[in-house]
Design brief:
This is Fibrinogen C-terminal domain-containing protein. With 357 residues, the protein is α+β, with helices and mostly antiparallel strands. The chain folds into 2 domains: 3-125, no CATH class; 150-352, no CATH class. It is 25% helix and 15% strand. Helix 1 (3-21) crosses helix 4 and helix 2 runs antiparallel to helix 3 (57-85). The longest helix is centred in the first third of the chain and has 29 residues, at 57-85. The two termini are 54 Å apart.
Length: 357
């Protein structure tokens, strides 16, 4: 079989793929590609006109090339029409090549064909519920419209401000801190009081109402948010006494990507303090050097729910983010003994899946 024939059948195969993944009107598109195969010497079905006796082979090849060129124009025109019917923009260079490249991708649904350098297989746009913000009349990359974390949003739009945003993969909005400590922080938890906390509410609480001034948690989603990072370590940030001001009595840490935010043991200790807020130091009566862990009930009578402490013998639990309602000795958790932050006040717990820079 000739190279030209192989080309025709490859195009047909791609068109069939496009019918499934691009949702194109493939019958027209496929007919055009079938014609390409039919116009090629050696392919089954209708053939190109046979050369007259003595006609030079070069003339036959020229005839085939002319028909293929005409077919290419027609395919490009059909592809534009199909793309426009599916919500795409106007004509652009290499639109046919762009559509075919999309057809080769298993998860490709649409193509961005504003320019050749923008043409690449995209993830399924249909899986992104909030793919707004596209330029008028064009599809854009899902990666550019469906950020999974606050840091991804900040990188796409550096002018983003602190506030509520929708992230791909979450049904509820999140609060993003786009300004402090490099920006791109996703709020995981706000502990504004002891009321209503339990193991269940620690995992998710008031998920539809993220804020810095009332109890809130999406801790159950923290590991999936963390997974969006590409580095070996992620970052987390703790703030206490947040009702009086931001960036107090805590700091910024990094931890191995393998660590979990819902871990129930005290052994996640390979954490590195990268920035300290206020004057405190690691101590049994202070924040301790470990990722906050979930106390399922065995430690200190189950009073601390989310803590950095491991003082099993004394039963003290300084460095605690969230305390059960029945423990009323602190407002709202024991934090750093003998300081202005002996009572934690409002605690904020943040995630950034990798350094901002």
């Amino acid at each position: 079989m000739t190279d030209a024939c192989m080309y025709g059948f490859r195009e047909i195969k791609r068109c069939r793929s496009a019918a499934m993944s691009l949702q194109l009107r493939c019958p027209l598109y496929q007919l055009a590609l079938l014609a390409a195969a039919a116009a090629t010497v050696g392919c089954g079905g209708p053939r190109a006109p046979a050369a007259e006796p003595g006609q030079p082979l070069q003339e036959t090849l020229q005839l085939i090339q002319q028909r293929l060129a005409s077919l290419d124009d027609r395919v490009q025109q059909l592809t534009r029409m199909v793309s426009q019917d599916n919500g795409g923009g106007g004509a652009a260079e290499s639109v046919r090549q762009c559509a075919l490249s999309c057809a080769e991708g298993r998860d490709c649904l649409v193509v961005d064909y504003r320019a050749p350098d923008n043409c690449r297989p995209l993830e399924k746009l249909a899986t992104c519920d909030r793919a707004g913000g596209a330029a008028s009349g064009y599809f854009v990359s899902v990666a550019q419209t469906c950020a999974r974390t606050c840091l991804q949003l900040l990188r796409q739009k550096p002018s983003s401000r602190d506030g509520l945003y929708h992230l791909h993969g979450l049904t509820e909005p999140v609060f993003c801190d786009m300004s402090r400590d490099g920006g791109g922080w996703t709020l995981l938890l706000t502990a504004n009081s002891q009321d209503g906390w339990s193991l269940d509410t620690l995992m998710e609480r008031e998920a539809a109402r993220p804020a810095l001034d009332h109890n809130y948690s999406i801790l159950q989603h923290a590991d999936s948010l963390k997974a969006a990072g590409k580095g070996a370590r992620f970052q987390y940030r703790l703030e206490a006494q947040a009702q009086s001001g931001r960036g107090r009595w805590g700091g910024v840490w990094s931890a191995p990507r393998s660590y979990s935010f819902t871990h129930q043991l005290t052994n996640q200790t390979d954490v590195r303090l990268e920035d300290r807020f206020d004057n405190w130091k690691y101590d049994m009566n202070s924040i301790q050097q470990r990722l906050p862990w979930v106390n399922a009930g065995g430690y200190a009578g189950g009073k601390p729910l989310l803590t950095t402490s491991d003082q099993w013998r004394s039963g003290a639990f300084w460095g605690t983010l969230v305390t059960r309602p029945e423990q009323r000795a602190y407002r709202h958790s024991p934090w750093v003994y003998g300081t202005a932050a002996q009572h934690s006040g409002t605690v904020l717990y943040w995630l950034r899946e990798e350094p901002a820079s």
